[in-house]
Write a structure and sequence with these properties.
It is a single chain. Strand 9, helix 3 and strand 10 form a beta-alpha-beta unit. About 45% of the residues are buried. A six-stranded mixed sheet has the order 5-4-3-2-1-17. With about 290 residues, it is of the alpha+beta class. Helix content is about 25%, strand content about 30%. Helix 1 packs parallel to helix 2 and helix 3 runs parallel beside helix 4.
Amino acid sequence: MASITLGLIQSLGYSTKEKSLARHLELIREAARRGAQIVCLQELFLTPYFCKTEDTRLFDLAEAVPGKTTDTLAKLAKKLGVVIIASLFEKRAPGLYHNTTAVIDADGKYLGKYRKMHIPEDPGFNEKFYFTPGDLGYRVWDTKFGKIGVLICWDQWYPEAARLAALGGAEILFYPTAIGWLKSEKKQLGRAQHCAWETVQRGHAVANGCYVAAVNRAGIEDDTEFWGQTFVANPYGEITAKASVDKEEVLIAECDLGLVEDFRRIWPFFRDRRIDTYGELAKRYRDE
């Protein structure tokens, strides 16, 4: 089976959508020049991470998906012959918004979108104010370079989401992300928080016998220090490529899709699943 090259774009927040789009178009071109076949941008790449406050004026940042930005990205995808995964603030209807990722194939065709299913509400991450939970399910796309699943940031903590995407045939799970340290917490909890984030995703790779690509942003925005460290883990959970903590960069990583098949033959977790015993997973809690 084929080996493919990923280009994961870890970038900073820019003051306007226009500046951000122009910069990310440059970074996508750089990724393609360095051999990337699938390019993934970070969560909400067009804006600073605006969910730190609740402000109705910020809904003006949202746009249609597909729409103007995806049209621009589709033209570039076709020109470069790369798949592009782009996370956007979607306006679905008046008063109805989603945290959404669009998938564009290497021929410029818009394949569809995934809407973030799990929406956090924490200090500095007031996403429930802005985003309606997704309603499109855990989708998988058969792109020119392989079958991929896309989940978004807070979805990273849920093994059910990774499992359902993998059961749909995904060979690589992409997680566009915006996660970092609050200044008040970093000294005491920073190392532990990052360890948990990285470990749970490496576990998804192992449990599902697939690659995981987590694409985080970097830089300091107000009191949040995004911790960067974009990475790729193989089906054994080994980190095969990792970006810096604080720099904007394009992380290039090779993925041998043959390893997915080989791993699943050796450790056939899908075969041995006891699907007849999992009904209670659909409950909120196992109360007596």
